[in-house]
Amino acid sequence: MRTLVRWALALAMTFAGVAHLTFARRDFQAQVPDAVARYGPLDRDAVVVASGVVEIAFGIALVALPKERRRVGAALAAFYVAIFPGNVDQWRKKRSAFGLDTDRRRFTRLFFQPLLVAAAWWSTR
Asked: In terms of C-beta density within 10 A (0-12 exposed, 13-18 middle, 19 or more buried), how is residue 74 classed?
């Protein structure tokens, strides 16, 4: 079961990373918090591109680096925690993206992030 979850995360991360770089780029920009875009060294689009590259790397690392599995899982769990403020910001600012076009949908989505953190951690132990 751990292997199945790890592979599912790997595929999801790779797909999400490709989506960041191509067809869903504008939707992902809705998740970049205003403070990151305003005070960080990168604009919204650059943050989306960079995170897309990171997500593809995670997707590959989850299956290609078995000896580093625990470290990759810990780093992926930390990544999910790090991007959570973007999900909160999307909900707070009422930004629609990915079909999350109501407050209820955006709020409900927030509860899935801890599941991703747990799945990344559990599947790589």
From this structure: middle
